[in-house]
Amino acid sequence: MTQTTEGKVYDVAGQDWDELVETVTESSEERLVINMGPQHPSTHGVLRLVLTLDGETVTEARTVIGYLHTGIEKNMEFRTWTQGVTFVTRMDYLAPIFNETAYCMAVEKLLGITDRVPERAQAIRVMMMELNRISSHLVALATFGMELGATTPMIYGFREREMVLDIFEYVTGLRMNMAYVRPGGVSVDLPAGAVDKIGEFLKVMPKRIKDIRKLLDANPVYTRRTKDVAYLDLTGCMALGITGPMLRAAGLPWDLRKSQPYCGYETYEFDVPTENTCDVYGRYLVRMAEMEESLKIIEQALDRLTGPLKGGPVMIEDKKIGWPSQLALGPDGLGNSPDHIAHIMSSSMEALIHHFKLVTEGFRVPAGQAYSAVESPRGELGAHVVSDGGTRPYRVHFRDPSFTNLQAVPATCEGGMIADVISAVASIDPVMGGVDR
Amino acid sequence: MSSDNLPGVPVEETPEPVARTGMFGASGTGDTSGYGGLVVRRAPRLSSARPYGSYFDEVADALEPAFGDAIERVVVDRDEVTFHVARERLVDVMRHLRDDAALRFELSLGVSGAHYPDETGNELHAVYHLCSITHNRRVRVEVGCPDPDRHIPSTVSVYPTHDWHERETYDFFGIIFDGHPALTRIEMPDDWEGHPQRKDYPLGGIPVEYRGAETPAPDQRRSYA
Q1: Domain for residue B192, yes or no?
Q2: Considering the domain A72-321+363-436 in this protein, what is its CATH number?
Q3: Would the CB atoms of A241 and B110 count as touching at under 8 Å?
Q4: Measured between CA atoms, how close is B114 to chain A, in angstroms?
Q5: Fewest Cβ atoms closer than 10 Å to its Cβ: which of A72, A310, A370, B198?
C-alpha cells in the first residue's frame, strides 16, 4: 500500500492475499477505484476498464482501448489493393471473412465491377460468411460461459468452432486470417471433398446447437446472471450507434442482409431473429437463433454451388484485375497451380510479364471514395475506401462494430453490480483486434 | 489501349496519370511491358448536377430549403451521394438530417478522416456516414478544414456515438472537434507526438544489423508503379 494525494493505492501483484485483505478491511474508504485489465481473462483481450465502486455497485465505468493498435489502416496505404486483403483479415480476427468481404466490396465498387463478380464467387462468399458467423458466435458463447464460471459452454463452443475452422483450413489453407476473398472474387475454388465436409457439418450442427440450448436456455444459474442485466433499449442503441445482435435484442429487426442486401443475400430464405428484452439473455437468444438461420443459408448456398453454379468461375474474367493464377494444393502446401507455372515459365513470355506486373504492381483503381457495409456477427462492419487513382489505397477506414458497441459499457454497467460488468462486456462481444485495428 | 481492357468506367476524360517512379532505377515509369498503358485515368468527380438520380434528389430537396447556403457541393458517384457542408453549419445540418421527417437519418456510422495535402485551404476532411432506418437510405456528409486552422464543430450532441469516433479522428489526423466532451487520444498513447494517419507523418526506416544497412521507410522504398 502506498499513500498518494488521491488516496491510498493498493497494488495487487502476487503478494500475500491475506495481508491485502487485512489492510483493505481496516480502511474506512467507501469509494474504491479499481483497474480491470488490460490483462484480465474476462476482458476479451486487452480491454481495460476503470471502475469506480461504491461497495459492490459500479458508479462509474470508463473504457480504455488502444492496447492492440497495430496501424493496419496506415500500413495498407503502402501495399497494393490486393495485398490489402491480408491486412484487413487481421482486424476482427474472429470474423476475418467479413473484413475481407467488406473491403473487397468497396474496392469492387470503386472499380465499378460489382455486377461482374461471378455468381459462384458470391455464393462461396455467402457460405463462408455464414460459416464464419457461426464460429464467431460460438466463441462469443464459449468465452461468455467461461467468464461466468461455467466451463462446459466453453468446451462445447470451442469444440464446435473447431469444425468450422477445419472447413476453413480445408478450403483456404488457413484456419484464421485466410485472405480468401479477393477483389473480383475469391482466391481459390472449393477443393474436392469440401462439399461433403460442409454437408457433414450441416448434419451435425443442429444437434450441437440444441445441446447448448438445453444446457443454457433455462439454466437457473445462467438466467439469473443474464436476465435483466445490462439493459439497453432501442433509443440507447440508436444514440450510441449500436448495431448487430445488441440492436436486434432491443426489438429492431435491422439486418443489412435483409434491408440492404449484398452478395445476393436477397435470394436466400432466412429470418432475422429478434428479442425485446434488451438484456444479456436476449442477446444470447439472438445469437443462438442466428446460428440456426446461418445453417439454413449455408444449406441453400451449398445447393447452388453443387447445382446451377457448379464449375463456374470464382474470379472476375477481366484479366487486368483477376489474380493471374489459381491456387492448387501441392506436396509442399497451397501455392500457384503447376499448370500456371508451366504456362508462364515455358510457354508464354507475355503471360509471365502479365503475371509479374499484376502481382508486383497491381491494378489501378479510379479515383474516388466508396463505403460498403456487411452485417458482421457484431453488427455493421463498414469499409470507407478512398483511391487517388493509383495502385495503392489512399485511405482505408474501417467502421468496426466492436469499436462502436464498446461505447455502451458505461450505459450498461453504471448503477449495476460489479459482477454484472462481466456479463455486460461479454454480451457486447468486443474483439479488440477490430476495436483497435 | 483498347477500351475492352478497362473496367466499367467511362472514358470521357483522361487527365494526367498518378505516376510513381523508380523501378530498378529507371527514369521513366520503367514500364517495358506496356501494362502501365492500361491505366484507368479518371479524376475524382468534384460535383454533380441535378438530377442526381435514385433517392438523392429527395434528400437534397429536404435539405436545400433550409441549408442551401451550407451545402458547398453535392457529389453523386458510384451510387453514393456526398454532401460537402460548410463547417460552420455542420451541427445544424446534422440535426436536421436526424430530425426532419423526410430525412430521418437516425443512425450514424461514425466519423472517418482523410488528409489531402494538395487541396490547399481544405486539407483535412471529416467524413460522416449516415443511415436512415425509417427510409432505408444512406448519405455521406463531408466537411473540410484548412490545416493551419484545423477546427470542426463536434457533433456529439446530435449523435452521441461520435464520441469515440471524433477522438479517433483527432488522434489520427489532428482535427480538433470543438465542443467535444473530452477530446483525448484514443488509440495512440497519451503522450504520443504527431498524428499518424496524416500524409506528412514521418514513417522512419528500420536499421538492419548488416554492415550499417537500413530498410528505408515505406514511402521511400522502390516502387513498381
Answers
A1: no
A2: 1.10.645.10
A3: yes
A4: 7
A5: A310
